[in-house]
Amino acid sequence: MKKINILIVEDEKAIIEELRAYIDHWGYTVINSCINREKILALIKEENINVIIMDICIEGCKQGLETAAMIKKKYPNIEIIFLCDHLDDYNINKAIEIDPVAYIAKPINREEQRISLKIAINRITKENKNKKTNPNYFILDEEFCYDTDSAILFYDHIPMHLTKKENKLLELLIKHRNSIVSISTIKNYIWADQEINDNAIRSLVKRLRQKLKYKFIETFSTRGYKISPYQLK
């Protein structure tokens, strides 16, 4: 992984600045800070967040826990570190179900925060290594991999949204990786007996290329397309 992107979910400006100073000093990147659930989800999607440091009671413990649970369900590879003033036994048990890296009491202890971040990054690194050795994961490069079992494309460990046709095209290209897949094969696999023209295929390839940051897919004029993973060092 090239860098660790961290999102801070906290409403106290002094704590945000304190965390930023610590994290910058340790060589990681704070992407942003926010408190709104919709903004959190938007930033995760836009910025490929790896770790969230989150005040568990940002909008009340119940809503904070619901937001964290929603994040972990949708993005299981994101690691969460909870900040809290006080939690009763009921909310502690609810928080445990989310499997956070740690709970850090306020005021924040710098060493506790540093250790928690190291644990979070270690979890992410282990997950990355597991993907590289898992036969169900097709590694495109250090950022992109495709889970052939669940048909999910990951960018920096974050699941990406693909349309049904984009997913089928990627699946087909990976199945025949390093070989040219003909235009007729693509038509039959994705559209079956439907009548479509070559512009529909070009448009589909263009959309998939955009999501892959214009990497991997090669065009062979009038013949078809090929996907080639980068050689990892």
Automatic annotation (TrEMBL):
GO CC aspect terms: cytosol; protein-DNA complex
Gene Ontology molecular function: any one: transcription cis-regulatory region binding
UniProt cross-references to CDD domains, sorted A to Z: trans_reg_C
GO BP of this protein: regulation of DNA-templated transcription
Keywords annotated in UniProt: DNA-binding, Phosphoprotein, Transcription, Transcription regulation, Two-component regulatory system
Key word Transcription present: yes
Presence of keyword Transcription regulation: yes
Domain OmpR/PhoB-type: 135-229
Name by which UniProt lists this protein: DNA-binding response regulator
Species of the source: hydrothermal vent metagenome
